[in-house]
Specification:
Layout (H helix, E strand, L loop, with lengths): L2 H13 L4 H20 L5 H11 L13
Helix pairs in contact: 1-2, 1-3, 2-3
Length: 68
């Protein structure tokens, strides 16, 4: 996953924010994908830091979050 792909996913997340279930699933998907890239050593330390920081911005997208 590249930074551009994360940015595209963030656009998608914003577009589905009206559907909390879909938005929450997409938020999880973004974070899981980014963690996988980092864990698999596919990124430099600088790239990993940048992509992780971008993935954390999912919390800036407002939708109802609930946890069981």
């Amino acid at each position: 996953m590249t930074i551009e792909q994360v940015k595209q996913k963030l656009v998608e997340l914003r577009s589905v924010a009206h559907d909390p279930e879909r938005a929450h699933g997409l938020e999880d998907e973004i974070r899981d994908d980014v963690l996988a890239e980092i864990a698999e050593g596919k990124l430099t330390a600088e790239q990993a830091s940048a992509i992780a920081a971008l993935a954390r911005t999912t919390t800036d997208v407002e939708f109802d979050r609930w946890y069981a």
